[in-house]
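Anyone able to model this chain together with S-adenosyl-L-homocysteine?
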Amino acid sequence: MTKSTKQKRQHQHNNKAGKRHAERSGQQAAGKKRPTQTDIGRTASEKSYPVQLNQVVELKITGLNHEGAGVGRYNGYTLFVPQALPGEVVTAKVEHAKKSYGFAQLQEIVQESPLRVEPPCPVFHRCGGCSLQHLAYAEQLRHKQQIVKDNLARIGGFAVDGDGAVQVHPTLGMADPWRYRNKAQVPIGMEAGMIVGGFYAERSHEIVDIEACLIQHEANDAVVATVKRLAGRLHIPVYDEAKHTGLLRHVVAKVGVKTGDVMVVLITTEAFIPEREQLVALIRQELPQVKSIVQNINHHRTNVIFGEQTFTLWGEDVIYDYIGNVKFAISARSFYQVNPVQTEVLYNKTLEYAGLSGQETVIDAYCGIGTISLFLAERAAHVYGVEIVPEAIADANRNAVLNGIANVTFAVGAAEVVIPAWKEQGIRADVIVVDPPRKGCDEALLATILQMQPERVVYVSCNPSTLARDLKVLAERYRVVEVQPVDMFPWTGHVECSVLLKLRGADE
Ligand code: SAH
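re: yes, here you go
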């Protein structure tokens, strides 16, 4: 029943209490903090918890948290054990302890779940990108549906089973849940005389070299491999983070999944690239799909990838992609959804929930580059989009022109300020769509929605707990009709939802 020695050893190498490389799998701003040595020292010596640091405990795993870590109890104390699955009995070493919960590192699987699968990626145990490659895909989808239900029940106080319950549908997954990411951001360095690029090893800035990332589009893997090889051949100095010397620090690759267009972004510490013409010519020759080669200069000592200056070395400034029929221009710096296939699934559901006939006025709050606004515009009389980042609104306006869409108005500002102002100006909405960041909607915005009383609200959410909290507020006037979870980030704990709310009295 115990795992093979090889697997045990792999688990001992694994440590995911803090994921350094979360962005690669779409876990931006997951807010996960790595325990520092100081935290660990303090919690160990000054406080008495039911567990001691470095203690190896045996426990039964009963659930998964939203980051995909196993959750179990040891003498009533909650422990998170990354890579352990519900139903398993495991031994785990306590690494970090807080008052009400702690983190422990998986040591040995005493009783294995039948749902456990062998992770296909050889660096799964070291990379922070994926957290659920050891769980069968169908089970992951079921788990994500359950997470949504649990949050709606626990935080929102909603009934999720039985008569009159909020209908939470099974998660819409991908037919092929691999190679879905359209953007790679890879640090470059030197290891034993070889140029390496991949991800940072846990708790260090040591770069682990990888040739293939199984959730990354093949075109992006090819860009990274080619640039590494050419930089070596042309003796382009690579960045040494510790000494803050060298030139090439990151390669960013983007692909338009529907068009096949590829963009290469070279992030360097200074403008001058030796053998630049040769480098550009060879990239073009070896990667014919490349439509744009861009340089960005970042001379700061920082973990932030991009610097302020960007210029095009060859080709166009942008590449293009489509979501549905809407064409998007993607520049080196512009935001774009990283899983366009599932984005289309999510937006189609959002469009269906909006129930448009062509006569409606729609407000799209937290509109980003206007993806949802433009997607809905074809079926609405007018769409108003609001977003706080000015560059995103510039992209939204550009994309409206690109598609010849005239019935949209975009505004820069906080949704909770701009939408009340629109209300004062007499703008009425039949449908309000919100797609807020992880922290959810501002209270003032929810209050405004309750006053404006659009017939429908469609809430698109990347965080089931803030979703549940906000739905509880809206439930004062709205009936939460149905919830559709969509798997935008397979092999991670993340789940996205589109939710239909109808004004009470309007439909019953
Ligand atoms: N709907 C877009 C983006 C959603 S992400 C899409 O599908 O692509 C959430 C967006 O909310 C981000 O672009 C962020 O910049 C923006 N944002 C954050 N706080 C905001 C606020 N108070 N008002 C308006 N936009 C905000």
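Residues 337, 366-369, 371-372, 386-389, 392, 414-416, 435-437, 442 surround S-adenosyl-L-homocysteine (CB under 6 Å).
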